[in-house]
Automatic annotation (TrEMBL), chain A:
EC number: 1.1.99.14
Comment on bound cofactor: Binds 2 [4Fe-4S] clusters.
Function description: Component of a complex that catalyzes the oxidation of glycolate to glyoxylate.
Source organism of the structure: Parageobacillus thermantarcticus
Protein name in UniProt: Glycolate oxidase iron-sulfur subunit
Catalysed transformations (reactions): glycolate + A = glyoxylate + AH2; (R)-lactate + A = pyruvate + AH2
MF terms in GO: 4 iron, 4 sulfur cluster binding; glycolate dehydrogenase activity; metal ion binding
Required cofactor names: [4Fe-4S] cluster
Pfam families per UniProt: CCG, Fer4_8
Key words, A-Z: 4Fe-4S, Electron transport, Iron, Iron-sulfur, Metal-binding, Repeat, Transport
Transport keyword on record: yes
Automatic annotation (TrEMBL), chain B:
Protein name per its UniProtKB record: Glycolate oxidase
FAD-binding PCMH-type domain mapped to chain residues: 104-284
Coiled-coil region list: none
Family: Belongs to the FAD-binding oxidoreductase/transferase type 4 family.
GO MF annotation, one: FAD binding
Listed SUPFAM superfamilies: FAD-binding/transporter-associated domain-like (SSF56176), FAD-linked oxidases, C-terminal domain (SSF55103)
Pfam annotation, one family: FAD-oxidase_C
Entry cofactors: FAD
Keywords: FAD, Flavoprotein, Oxidoreductase
């Protein structure tokens, strides 16, 4: 173990000592419920971090159970000892990531660099990917790819998620730097909109609807220029330095004007933005700026609820809600989405039995650990099926894709659909994405 | 030469030192004792004597048993019994994850079997008995005394996946359950038909019923309703020799033969593995009502408890918080608790709504008369929830001070609660430790919690002494070492404090009769020479 690995592991071990091993986290952990061994539980993982720090197991041995953690942080909610599991997990991952880099082939190192530093961390690259997706969809390539002889060329996991993809953003449409005036005469609030990289590339339409909803409740909306990916994927993969790099870029981008709030519509991204304060807690140059940024961050449901959003239409749907884990466990936004959904006339609200169990999407978990993710999704879909809902609402792009995949897998296509909260709210007040919001500047 | 035993460093404290630092595990000592008719309590000298008296028998006893590590053939046999390797864990990370519970220490098993049927358990135990391999049953390992720790390695039998049966028979008012069923799920299922399973340990959302049965768990509601053993009518058990037996039955009245049900409940997994239970259910009280009382003097609070309990009213729960817990909670989550108060009592009444309203008035007056500074009655269920929140927040609030929490459950007769509280206060000052007292005051089962940092050796040494002093105080006052957590490895060193030689030996004879090879959860309950509590790393 080199110095870098040791330092991170030592920090993780210090946090692990807070665990009194009571086991209250076991029933809350989706991987414990599906994989059925203590090794794949929060208590087991915390214990194994200690074992690695004490030198009883190697970082390679530790990486198995740590990699299989979803990072949903449901365990933190039930922990009576306040173990900071999210932080512990990131530290352990950082140690493992350092270790893997030492032993990885130069090719693998190059690929990881490209993905984390060059791809997700750079907005224009993600935009271009979104553009490629658009070409793929528009050119008929998607149709060809879905034809029987070609479908077999796709790995099962990609094919499943591909079907759930929204209409991508055309590469020539740009959003950055645009300003959208409020619906009324004067703005009630001036907010900055955080687009998010996956949301903007894959669910561009939902971002537009979000802006329209914010305008409608009286916000002046600015899509701050030079913003980039939130850094969650990097942080959760143990790429702490890259995560900090993108965080700094965002903090700078949103300091360009004095905004009342920085609004986002993705539970996972929002959680990361909320954690910038913690990320830079030990950095005297950035701690204050980061804390201010995190304080201003808000999920769109919080703003809409605060400004008294009102539905106009009656929607005769039977609706259930699968919250984003990070929205519940990190941002602690729980009541607002439910309140907004239930304020729509005609909606029959059917809550899930276990809404706080992760759906198995968890960033890129469903691509990296496809089978494990599908087992977790299976348990979730059983719960969802029980509600006999015709609309499943979520609040995060990953969850949305996973729900769409679940519906396809269960053969519920046509009887049930998955939507982002924003889509449902937009429908309830007659906004559709073809409406072009007026822009200034 | 010492093979399997020797590799398990942490288990060393569980083995006996004899002669030239020859390490001998408990089963072999039992074997020796049988052959040489030795007495357990002078083992150290007796072992030397044994070696001299009959060197051949001694060598056989030691080497014959000890040269049996868990070979790959044994593992293969286990896999065959389990119908494949899916539920047999042998990887290092897995074994380390079954090496702990909510108490102390790290004891790594050789293999973990996640059983799902009585046949599997019976066959594995038969094999273990034949090959003299230690077996430790385990549920969700939320126990606080070390009951689920495989202190001599060997096989861990994990019953937590075995939760397929949870049957409520409304007419017989019983529940039939598999060992891995979660305790709170039984009460939830009973609630659906207007019944109740009263035992409610604070871990009931995670603990398995088999663990509760083995440890005879309690909980707040036990003040009125009694503990786990009062709700067990019958059991199916796999004995240490692998036989499947039944005890008791489906009836409340049953005096046929010895009451083996009561013997097994609370035996901490040392007499067999519980594979099914028939539990008694009672009608669910239709309503609850809660009161909270603040006291400026802790001893006054103790007297108030006695006053309420002797008034002809039996509350479902009486919970207690001392000043340190009040301050910790208020610091953690300000909710207007009086930080100058020395004690707060929480009282829950249950029964018919009209009856408990009447009782609440009487309790209100009694508390005021006893000198309470403030008494508060929760009028709505929201108010009730808010009131109990303070009690629930004690654990997270005190966890912020220091990472390690030693939760004791020494229990005294009700009349001695004020005296016990006084003794605890003295212990806190004498040993200069961070001691917080809260818990189920109504039944004398206070929980003195010592907050410390297990990495601080000096502090842990003080804590070890303070724990001994707490036990001494409880026994002085006519109480007991453990009200609901069990003895396990945490309190066995103190057993001679509570029992004389023959009282303890009768227990040991029962153990030997059931488990001639000493394979079933060895190293628990019974003290060995020079045993003492060690919390230092």
């Amino acid at each position: 173990m080199n110095v870098e690995e040791k330092t991170h592991l030592k920090k993780a071990e210090d946090l692990a000592y807070d665990c009194v091993r009571c086991g209250y986290c076991l029933p809350a952990c989706p991987t414990y419920l599906t994989m059925k061994t203590e090794t794949q539980s929060p208590r087991g993982r915390i214990h194994l971090v200690r074992m690695a720090a004490e030198g009883r197991i190697t970082l390679d041995e530790l990486s198995g159970p740590i990699d299989l953690c979803l990072g949903c942080r449901a365990c933190e909610q039930v922990c009576p000892s306040n173990v900071q599991y999210g932080k512990l997990l990131e530290l352990a991952k950082t140690a493992i990531q350092h270790h893997k880099k030492q032993s990885a082939s130069p090719f693998r190192r190059f690929c990881e660099d490209v993905v984390f530093k060059q791809m997700f961390a750079r907005k224009n690259v993600m935009n271009k990917l979104g553009g490629l997706l658009w070409i793929y969809q528009k050119s008929g390539a998607k149709k060809i790819a879905h034809m029987e002889p070609f479908r077999r060329l796709f790995p099962e996991n990609l094919a499943l998620f591909d079907k759930g993809l929204d209409e991508a953003k055309p590469p020539f449409k740009r959003n950055d730097g645009r300003r959208y005036p409020p619906a009324g005469e004067r703005p009630v609030l001036k907010v900055a909109f955080f687009t998010g990289c996956v949301m903007e590339a894959v669910f561009h339409r939902i971002n537009r609807l979000s802006i329209r909803l914010l305008q409608q409740v009286g916000c002046e909306v600015v899509v701050a220029d030079k913003q980039t990916c939130c850094g969650a994927l990097q942080a959760h993969a143990g790429e702490e330095e890259t995560a900090k790099m993108v965080a700094k870029r965002n903090i700078e981008a949103f300091e360009s004007e004095d905004f009342d709030y920085i609004v986002n519509n993705a539970g996972g991204c929002g959680a990361m933005l909320k954690e910038y304060g913690r990320l830079f807690a030990d950095d005297p140059d950035w701690s204050e700026r980061a804390a201010r940024f995190s304080e201003k961050t808000a999920d769109i449901s919080v703003i809409l609820d605060m400004l008294g959003w009102k539905p106009e239409k009656t929607l005769p749907y039977r609706v259930t809600y699968q919250p984003s884990c990070h929205m519940t466990n990190v941002q602690k936004v729980v009541k607002e989405p439910e309140k907004l959904i239930r304020s729509i006339k005609g909606i029959e609200w059917i809550p899930l039995n276990d809404p706080n169990v992760c759906c198995g999407s968890a960033g890129i978990y469903n691509l990296v650990h496809f089978q494990e993710s599908m087992d977790i999704l299976g348990a979730k879909m059983a719960d969802i099926k029980g509600t006999k809902a015709d609309v499943v609402v979520t609040t995060n792009p990953g969850c949305l894709l996973q729900m769409k995949a679940g519906i396809i897998k269960e053969g519920l296509n046509g009887r049930m659909k998955a939507v982002h909260l924003v889509e449902l709210l937009a429908e309830a007040c007659g906004i559709d994405s073809s409406h072009r919001g007026q822009t200034q500047g | 030469m010492l093979l399997r035993k020797a590799k398990n460093d942490d288990a060393n404290s569980q083995t006996c030192l004899a002669g030239n630092s020859l390490r001998i595990p408990m089963p072999h000592i039992n074997f020796l004792i049988k052959r040489q008719k030795l007495c357990h309590f002078s083992l150290h000298a007796s072992l030397e004597a044994a070696r001299k008296a009959d060197p051949a028998a001694f060598e056989f006893a030691i080497l014959g048993v000890m040269n049996v590590p868990l070979t790959s053939q044994t593992i293969e046999k286990i896999i065959r019994i389990m119908g494949g390797g899916d539920r047999v864990l042998t990887q290092k990370t897995d074994l380390l994850s079954y090496a702990y519970d909510a108490s102390f220490g790290l004891f790594v098993p050789d293999v973990v079997c996640q059983v799902k049927s009585v046949e599997e358990v019976s066959e594995i135990v038969k094999l273990a008995n034949e090959e003299k391999i230690p077996v430790t049953p385990r549920g969700h390992a939320s126990g606080l005394s070390g009951g689920a720790l495989p202190v001599e390695g060997g096989i861990v039998i994990d019953v937590s996946l075995w939760n397929d049966v949870l049957e409520i028979d409304k007419d017989d008012m019983i529940a039939i359950v598999s060992p891995g069923v979660i305790t709170a799920d039984i009460d939830r299922a009973a609630k659906k038909v207007g019944l109740m399973y009263p035992p409610d340990p604070s871990s009931s959302n995670v603990s398995t019923i088999a663990g509760n049965l083995a440890e005879n768990s309690g909980g707040p509601r036990c003040l009125k309703y009694g503990v786990t053993k009062d709700y067990v009518l019958g059991l199916q058990v796999v004995t240490p020799e692998g036989h499947i037996i039944r005890t008791g039955g489906r009836t409340v009245k049953n005096v046929t033969g010895y009451d083996l049900t009561k013997l097994i409940v609370g035996s901490e997994g040392t007499l067999g593995i519980i594979t099914e239970a028939i539990l008694r259910l009672i009608p669910r009280p239709p309503a609850t009502l809660s009161l909270m009382a603040v006291f400026g003097d802790i001893v006054q609070a103790g007297h108030a408890i006695t006053d309420v309990l002797t008034s002809g009213i039996l509350p479902a729960k009486i919970e207690f918080m001392d000043q340190s817990s009040i301050r910790a909670v208020e610091n953690y989550h300000p909710m207007g608790l009086p930080i100058d108060a020395e004690a707060v009592l929480f009282i829950e009444l249950d029964g018919h709504p009209l009856a408990i309203r009447d009782e609440a008035d009487s309790v209100y007056q009694l508390l005021e008369k006893a000198g309470a500074l403030r008494v508060q009655k929760a009028e709505t269920s929201e108010e009730e929830e808010e009131m109990w929140k303070a009690r629930k927040l004690v654990s997270p609030a005190i966890a912020r001070h220091k990472p390690t929490k030693i939760s004791e459950d020494a229990t005294v007769p009700r009349s001695q609660i004020p005296a016990f509280l006084k003794r605890l206060r003295d212990i806190k000052h004498q040993f200069d430790i961070d001691l917080v007292v809260f818990g189920h005051a109504g039944d004398g089962n206070l929980h003195p919690n010592i907050l410390c940092d297990q990495r601080d050796r000096e502090e842990m040494e003080k804590v070890e002494k303070a724990v001994a002093a707490i036990f001494e105080a409880a026994i002085d006052l006519g109480g007991t070492l453990s009200g609901e957590h069990g003895i396990g490895i945490m309190k066995k060193a103190f057993m001679p404090m509570e029992f004389d030689h023959f009282s303890l030996e009768m227990m040991q004879r029962i153990k030997e009769a059931w488990d001639p090879n000493g394979i079933m959860n060895p190293g628990k309950i019974f003290p060995k020479p020079n045993d003492r509590l060690v919390l230092r790393q």
